[in-house]
Amino acid sequence: DTEVTQTPKHLVMGMTNKKSLKCEQHMGHRAMYWYKQKAKKPPELMFVYSYEKLSINESVPSRFSPECPNSSLLNLHLHALQPEDSALYLCASSFPLALQETQYFGPGTRLLVL
Amino acid sequence: GQNIDQPTEMTATEGAIVQINCTYQTSGFNGLFWYQQHAGEAPTFLSYNVLDGLEEKGRFSSFLSRSKGYSYLLLKELQMKDSASYLCAVRSNSGYALNFGKGTSLLVTP
After folding, report:
1. Is A95 on the interface with B (CB under 8 A)?
2. Deepest of A12, A100, A108, B47, by most Cβ within 10 A of its Cβ?
3. A105 touching chain B per CB within 8 A
4. Could you give the count of Cα atoms lying within 13 Å of A31 in the half-sphere of its Cβ?
């Protein structure tokens, strides 16, 4: 099973809303990632969790708040977003520091901020 | 920092062979990945190179030269479903985060 699942698939929210994106994997991976991808651009790393601890925050605005409740789950809490935050949000997971350590991506949540 | 370059667009004919190049300049190197991404979908893993040479996987092969900072992805017997964006990604020594190139949009025509 090399599946990473993400919910919801699509999300429309206003700038005053609070919403959460969810990501789940059952491959025993201990590193999980959030990426943001705008149309026709590559994924940009936002956050990395390793063994449930935040290890990388790529200077992401505080209106994005990650959470890793356990080794299988990763959330991204959204609050007071801006229209320019509209994008595809991708979750990925991997075995940290393994020899090959391939990152497997979920299908993404397509977010539209109005 | 990291600088990863790949062509923006390529077009090839069904049944043909196409080579997508990627050059990189990084402060460290701990592996190069190729991903395929269809429009509106997640990237899917294609190949991984960390040592020099060619890795073959069915219709897809990937080559790496660390001294030249160069990789290519070779797609043989092209099919229409191979029309997608192909992303080159490098992992530096400083951790396991991937840095992606801008991607090459491949169009396969009949």
Report:
1. no
2. A108
3. yes
4. 18
**A97 — pLDDT class (breaks 50, 70, 90):** low
Residue B90 has which token pair? 């490098």
What pLDDT is attached to residue B107? 98
- Rounded Cα gap, residues A23 and A104, in angstroms: 12
Q: Please tell me which of the candidates A96, A100, A110 has its beta carbon nearest to residue B48.
A: A100
Mean pLDDT split into 10-residue runs, chain B, 110 residues = 88 97 89 93 92 94 96 98 96 77 96
Taking alpha carbons only, the member of A90, A85, A91 closest to residue A112 is: A85
Q: Chain A residues with CB inside 8 Å of B95's CB?
A: 48, 55-56
